Amino acid sequence: MYYFKISSRSLLSKWRQYVSLFLVSMFGVAISLFLMFVVKGMLSSMATKAKMYYGGDMQILGGYDYIEYYHASKYVEKVKSVLPENAIVSKRLSARAKNSFLLYEGTEARFRQVIGIEFDKEQSLFENYNFVEGSASLLSGKYDILLSEPIAKMLSVHAGDQITFVDNRSGPVDTVPFVVKGIFRDSSIFGMYTVYFNIDYVVEFVNEEADYANRICVYFPDGSYSKKMLSKYHKALSTVLNMYPLVETKEDFYDVLYGPGFTEETYCLVSIESSMEELQLIIDAMNWVSMLVVATLIVIIIVGVSSTYRVLVLKRINEIGIYKAIGMNRFKIYRILLSESSCLMACGCIAGFVFSLILSGIIRCINLSFIPAFDVFLANGVIIPRLEFSNIVVVLLFVFVTTLSAVVLSIRKAVEITPVQALATTE
Predict the structure, then answer these.
(1) Which of 16, 160, 277, 284 has the fewest CB within 10 Å, making it most exposed?
(2) Which H helix or E strand runs over 174?
(3) Last residue of some domain: 219, 242, 275?
(4) How far apart are CA 368 and CA 345, in angstroms?
(5) Does residue 34 contact residue 386 with C-beta atoms inside 8 Å?
(6) pLDDT tens digits, residue range 32-86?
């Protein structure tokens, strides 16, 4: 405490000399943390959109030589029986739209897939969408439908309007009226031209018997899902289903399923990470770029603070000589100087953290949906920075420890000077 009193008095009396050091550490820490918050938030938004598109955190796919479930509810109950109680298990049915399209007052809109979902079970998942009009809670009937905003704009429809689904795949044209119950905002690759139907209608669309599906989806609404738990879930599912070994990508399973096939029903557990494998290059690139920028900023902090502090210490050589003349050894002088730099770095890190929160608040107010293909990283058109306590602690501790270590090395020569040499030196 004695040394901190001396160092704090020194900082207050010579505060103008230390302003530059404080600003370097503050801005370096602030930009580093802000960048991490932004990247984590962007990746989190992308993962959330992917979960809604793929049906949750995990999918269970399989069959003999084709992905399908007859009497799917039976399989849903089996899956629920071995997974945690908080897991929401639902069935889905996806089919190619081919020549089918939506029609409203002479305007048509085409889309790639007909996605059938259980509206009642996936309510909590669809609450993550930002609804421009209507909501997922209004879905109940067989002929209710959810549209993405780009499709709604193409058709010029609003929630409550009745539109026509034209099934023009083969044979006579079939038209089915649907009521728009919700329009969600998502112009990313996951939601640009996405339409959600009731699974009961999609079963009719593919001419299959009732209770048919081609995937079972598992979602953990409390965010408890972790890829580390995948092997545990796989082991549990193996007690009720014939499970294929865990795979890195679902293509590994497809190669066998659509190739030689299986002699008995075989199922594969596919994580959301595996479903997003095509985007993994983008995810890795963003992580590496952010790490490189953060590392560069930390190096700037270390070099800037240590070199500037060394100059300041050399200007105080007479003061060091006085300390030595009154009987202080070099270790006590080190403690005084390190106490100064510790106070300085602590204040800089705290101020940097606060400033990063301010920057995070500002960017949440900037609508970036005008940037082409950027919506996959946005939530309601803006970036929602994500704070992770562990990352904050790691960055702050790393900056603090490495900078202090660099300061010790930079002031070593000045501290080891003799009292006579120090007192004879003019500033």
Answers:
(1) 16
(2) strand 174-184
(3) 275
(4) 34
(5) no
(6) 999 999 999 998 888 888 888 888 999 999 988 888 999 999 999 999 999 999 9
